[in-house]
Amino acid sequence: MISSIDNYYSTNYSKCNLSESFLASWKGVAYPTDFIQIFSLPLQILAFYIILTKTPVQMKSMKWPLFYNHLFCSIFDVILCTFSTIYIILPMLGVFTVGVFSWLGIPIILELILLTCSLLSLAFSYIYLFESRSRAVSQNPFKMSRKSTRIKYYSYLILSYSTIFIFLIIIPSDQETAKLQALQAYPCPTQEFFTFPILILNSDSTTSTFIVIIFMPIFIAHSVGHGVFHVTWTIWYLYVAPSNQVSIETQKKQKTFLKNVILQFSIPSVFILFSVAIIFTSSFYSQEMMNLGVDVAGLHGIGESIAVIFVHSPYRKAAGQLIFRWNDPQSSTRVSAVRGNSSAFTI
Fold first, then answer.
1. Residue 133: pLDDT above 70?
2. How far is CA 286 from CA 171, 204, 208, 211, 326, in A?
3. In CATH terms, is domain 21-344 a member of 2.30.40.10?
4. Share of the chain above pLDDT 70, in %
5. Can you tell me the distance from the alpha carbon of 243 to that of 238, in angstroms, rounded to the nearest whole number?
6. How far apart are CA 219 and CA 176, in angstroms?
7. What is the pLDDT of residue 146?
8. Residue 97 DSSP SS3
9. Using 50, 70 and 90 to split pLDDT, how confident is the model at 212?
10. Which pLDDT belongs to residue 106?
């Protein structure tokens, strides 16, 4: 066995034929995600402003679910793109961060916990958004109208989500030995493996394969399943078995808003799913593609903010009013007239 990391770097590593591309380096995740966040932040702030100040009466019951969803999405995006931008080396499950927190000296394990919590909160907020929409359909027998039931349900979700922290249990305490074992399985990582304070989450290839190939897909399916459950029964009692006691106009608005919420979820999810697909297909192995997967995940913030603003008709019209007022300050009379008809917004 190689006696030390330094000895390996000076002997064995010199024989590797490595790519020195920009995308494979730490800069390939740090710079693109910073650039993405520059464009995301104004859109995120605009979405917050519109949700809080421009939500019409017809959408009042969904104002806070929309707000919380956008809040947790924004927190995740800011952490991923700015504070704890992650550089992942697969298949050895090695990670380090190149965000603001890493330059401040915050331990990487704390950054991973923060990043994981923000990702779980994002998933949690989408489930809450769909559950709130399901609860608004009066004839739905599966809606959780009682507060105690919702507390039990979301407590269960939090407990099930906490299983992801299993990676804290399997992190090797002897990182020097773990790095040497990882190098035996994958002898030619990028130079960042030796120049950055990398943390090996697990050096056993069997356990790593289980986490990446089995545990994570099951975990993702569990989260998606809850959202699908709430959406399915909402669709059933709006389209297949609608209530005769609810007016056609109300049902029409509920259908429209359900379509908008699904679209709001689908647009940013494309970036996450595409990112996950890139990461899984690049596991064996391309560091450029791995970093590209992280960069694509960073686009979630732009997609989510644009979806919030433009999918819902009242928010889209409110954004148009703001732009119209900024471009033509003399048109305040016309803007006021449009505002006066805000009650006519449909959802």
1. yes
2. 24, 20, 17, 19, 46
3. no
4. 87
5. 8
6. 30
7. 87
8. strand
9. low
10. 94
How many angstroms separate the CA atoms of 170 and 165, rounded? 10
Do residues 41 and 305 touch, judged by C-beta distance below 8 A?
no
- CB neighbours of residue 78 within 10 Å: 19
Contact of 347 with 312, CB cutoff 8 Å: yes
Q: What is the pLDDT of residue 211?
A: 67
- Lookup result for tokens 């008809």: 341
Token pair, residue 261, equals 């919420």
pLDDT of res. 299: 94
Is 249 in a helix, a strand, or coil?
A: helix
What residues form DSSP beta bridges with 88? 95
Q: Outline where the chain has alpha helix (H).
A: 5-10, 27-54, 63-78, 100-103, 108-135, 147-161, 167-170, 175-185, 192-195, 205-209, 216-235, 248-281, 287-298, 300-311, 313-327, 332-340
Spatial neighbors of 232 by CB under 8 A, at least 6 apart, are none
The neighbouring-strand residues paired with 86 are 97
